[in-house]
């Protein structure tokens, strides 16, 4: 335990020191280097935003008790707003598909993307709607199988940047 605490403090101190710009002389300008956003960070950030947007978009006076997988494809504008939002795969329940499309249209975290994702990048939000945890796991397994088949079907599909969310369901 002591080694972990010591290592954590040492890493924190190093991070603080590295965060400060270093100058060799008074005349030289400061240079601050910030790391680019990784794919994992980007997926985590956008997935959290998608969860929040699904929560907001699903505040209907009535929410159908249905299950399924909706896949939404889109691109983004230069300032990070989703555009060309379309349903790529329907869940079979129109209201769930509308909720998914609305949630993706309202994403707010697409302004900082990893450097290797170009301006014409196609994104895909995989959204699972389930009424309970067991069914959510079954649908996640189905989604994995579908995505594996999609990748195998066409090499250009590998360029689509996919991320996902399991939509929260009301407990009542």
TrEMBL record:
Pfam families the UniProt entry points to: TonB_C
SUPFAM superfamilies per the UniProt record, alphabetical: TolA/TonB C-terminal domain (SSF74653)
The keyword Signal is annotated on this UniProt entry: yes
Keyword Disulfide bond included in the entry's annotation: no
Keyword terms, alphabetized: Signal
Domain named TonB C-terminal: residues: 42-140
Domain of life: Bacteria
Matching Gene3D superfamilies: 3.30.1150.10
InterPro entries the record matches: TonB_C
Signal peptide stretch: 1-24
Protein name: Energy transducer TonB
Organism: Qipengyuania aurantiaca
